[in-house]
Amino acid sequence: MQFLDNIFFALLLAAGVGYFTINVKKLIRNIKLGHDIDRTDNSSERWKNMTMVALGQSKMVKRPVAGFLHIIVYVGFVIINIEVIEIIIDGLFGTHRVLSFMGGFYDVLIGSFEILAFLVLVAVIVFWIRRNVTKLGRFASSDLDGKPRNDANYILYFEVVLMTLFLVMNAADFHLQNLGIGHYNQAGSFPISQFIAPIFNGMSEGSVVLIERTAWWFHIAGILVFLNYLYFSKHLHILLAFPNTYFADLNAKGKLNNLESVTNEVKLMMDPNADPFAAPANPDAVPAKFGASDVQDLNWVQLLNAYSCTECGRCTSSCPANQTGKKLSPRKIMMDTRDRLEEVGRNIDLNKGVFVDDGKSLLNDYITTEELWACTTCNACVEECPINISPLSIIIDMRRYLVMEQSAAPMELNNMMSNIENNGAPWPYNQMDRLNWVNE
Amino acid sequence: MSENLIVPTMAQMMAEGKQPEILFWVGSAGSFDDRAKKITRAFVKILNRANVNFAVLGTEESCTGDIAKRAGNEFLFQMQAFMNIELLNAYEVKKIVTCDPHSFNCLKNEYPSLGGNYEVLHHTQFIQQLLKEGRIDFNKDTYKGSRITFHDPCYLGRANNEYQAPREILSQTNAQIVEMKRSKSSALCCGAGGAQMFKEPEKGNMDINVLRTQDALETTPNIIATGCPYCNTMMTDGVKFAHKENEVKVLDIAEIIANAQNL
Known about the structure:
The complex is a heterodimer of chains A (440) and B (263).
Chain A: H1 2-31, H2 43-55, H3 64-80, H4 82-93, H5 104-132, H6 137-140, H7 147-179, H8 205-229, H9 237-246, H10 260-270, H11 300-308, H12 314-318, H13 320-323, H14 330-350, H15 362-365, H16 369-373, H17 380-384, H18 391-405, H19 411-423
Helix pairs in contact in A: 1-4, 1-8, 1-14, 2-9, 3-5, 5-7, 7-8, 9-11, 11-14, 14-18
Chain B: H1 10-15, E1 22-25, H2 27-32, H3 34-49, E2 54-55, H4 66-70, H5 74-90, E3 95-98, H6 101-110, E4 119-122, H7 123-132, E5 147-150, H8 164-171, E6 176-177, H9 208-217, E7 223-226, H10 229-241, E8 249-252, H11 253-260
Helix pairs in contact in B: 3-11, 7-8, 9-10
């Protein structure tokens, strides 16, 4: 009878970790649908970036209130999860508080978990209020209508439930420890749950044991469910923030990449010895598509960016176009990219590993040209992103597609570009007049 | 109105067998836009005063292609870039200074992988150096008692992390330097970048330059200082929109210094 518990626990754990692994593989496959881009250079700088920005949360504190609360939840999440190690050992081997042999150190650990759990509860409640009561602009935005807004709240509810279960479990344990019942030996310190424990006074031992066990099981089951919810949620950032900051662009923000495919063509055009009628070196090569109209045209870091985005909206709230009522929202660019990537992923799943054209694309079906042309390329969104996502790089790649593949720039920009082509300036002035300012 | 500016071209220099210390990249706005030409002239006055051995490309200069690149036309950008690089390399240019942060960013960051490797400075960085080296001086009392606020150009600030040079120059003017609520890395764009200068804005409830000018006017400045010809135009329009053009001037850092030299 005793073993049934352990077998059930092992099955639960295997199912939880197993399903998550399947989805992680899908996630990696989807990210790899993007073009290759080399981000393996300069590993010391990359480690430093990841340590500062993801681990150290250096960009979060730019907005102090949210930054401070987020650090509590983040530190709480990381540290309280040490407890999961003990829960797994106990669950698999039928022990109870197996790590309590550490004595005083164990007391410190459990005590600090409790304090953090309480602080996390407070922070999460403030987060909920900011989203649902005071309705901060970036959370009230229509970007989040529907699933994204619910997603954000579900995450908060999850955390409330998990922290409450953890504290109730400890409170019941503490109560039973004080009664000296069975295997509930004195272990741990309970700075928070000692205040919950009095509610068990007068209850039968059996009931309190049942409450302790129920809280224990729901807590670990909840953690596994939450783990598996990640893939379907914006909450993936708790894992992906790390690779995302590691692989982020290290160049000056102003630097846009130079398209190599274009360089080759331009060099050919400008080479007086080039034979325009020469057969292509590789006649079967598919001509490179310039720019991006769909997720497969983006690079894998841009797709990783899309999965890493937690929809905080700092980008959008700092975007000059968005602040002046234009349709552009950098956050929506990232959300659309992810939604489309997920759609493409499901298409591949349904069609036995091959993408079958569904007549849709990221451009137009998700992101409109009106949004793309509203961008001033000011880099405020890139600067603001707490985990170094670049919505701008996607906007530029899509503009490139519009201009170079579809000749679909706004008319005024076409005029500007033909001026540059004809007379080397964006205005229709003669290049021979370039020095006139000297004598004016 | 024209005092004599000494503006040698690279072609003249080469004919005389000379190599200038620095190339002044004037840029399309600085060459053709009426307001920006004044900035160009102010900067040249400073260069002349400091006896800087410089030259311009003159009629050989062509658009960097930056605006085309940001509009998505990588072809046109690279055509322009290769043409310019060929010319710059033929003249063996090593060091470039420009008053346009967009040209600055493009030459500095986007030309190298196409074969154009130069040390590129924004004019505020160059003026700061001249001041530091004592090569120019100006009347410190010119702006005494006035309030100056600096609008960070996106392509100098966020794009290239240069926030100090313009502020250090301004701090030497004896004016009171006031920061806008959004400045440095949080500065709001003037609305001209990303080729917006050349098109009507998308539908919205306000123009970006009007919003940014509000930020500036909240500091009740006498002068809004800029470091970019496009920002200058946008902020000037914003000030007019707020009917403050009689009280608030929009001046480039180069003009602020050149004016204080009584040049």
